[in-house]
Amino acid sequence: MEREKALKLVKEQLTEHRYQHTLGVMETAISLARHYRADEKKAELAAIFHDYAKFRPKEEMKRIIIDQGFPSDLLEYNPELWHAPVGAYLTKTEAGITDREILDAIRYHTSGRPGMTLLEKIIYLADYIEPGRHFPGVDEVRELAQESLNQALIKSLQNTIIFLLKKNQMVYPETFHTYNDLLKKQE
Ligand code: DGI
Ligand code: FE
Ligand code: FE
Ligand code: FE
């Protein structure tokens, strides 16, 4: 699918703010893909669709998670986690994108997963460091991302886990599993 068509489909689903974020993720993902020799076209499409489901009603997301057999424990954790697998599903059914690597990069862009692919890592990080993001620690992750995708990912997962702990929020176990998996692979 061409960039213009993909952007048009996504724009209809998002607020202007979230659309601008999506453009930032797209540019960042393409640049990381070039840097780390991943497929730039897949990075572009995964980035464009990564937040496709962000504003779907909770009831609709819940139904899709149940009907499509996504892990039902997701429903016990923060609803912020739901738009990732639901986004992968809707990108397939509504936008007609069938590429497994693209759909998995969308699916795992919030929680991560152990054994993340190169494309999954790129989308996860691009989402975290795109130019519109301004939270504490983001510049450090931007710098790390130029040197090592894994080190940047480890730092961003640490930041996210600490952020959730400080807000007294639960942490989805997959986020810990992703973190542990990357640490294990350091040496
Ligand atoms: O959709 P975005 O805002 O662009 O970013 P995202 O899909 O990475 O969502 C991140 C939000 O999800 C962030 O505000 C923290 C929240 N969240 C809630 N529970 C968890 C979680 N993020 C992770 N990684 N793990 C959780 O358990
Ligand atoms: Fe998201
Ligand atoms: Fe993220
Ligand atoms: Fe996002």
From TrEMBL:
It comes from the Bacteria. Its EC number is 3.6.1.41. It catalyses: P(1),P(4)-bis(5'-adenosyl) tetraphosphate + H2O = 2 ADP + 2 H(+). The keyword Hydrolase applies. InterPro entries: Diverse_Catalytic_Enzymes, HD/PDEase_dom, HD_domain, HDIG_dom, YqeK. GO terms for molecular function: bis(5'-nucleosyl)-tetraphosphatase (symmetrical) activity. Keywords: Hydrolase, Iron, Metal-binding, Nucleotide-binding. PROSITE patterns: HD (PS51831). It holds the Pfam family HD. Residues 18-132 form the HD domain. PANTHER family: BIS(5'-NUCLEOSYL)-TETRAPHOSPHATASE, SYMMETRICAL, SLR1885 PROTEIN. This is bis(5'-nucleosyl)-tetraphosphatase (symmetrical).
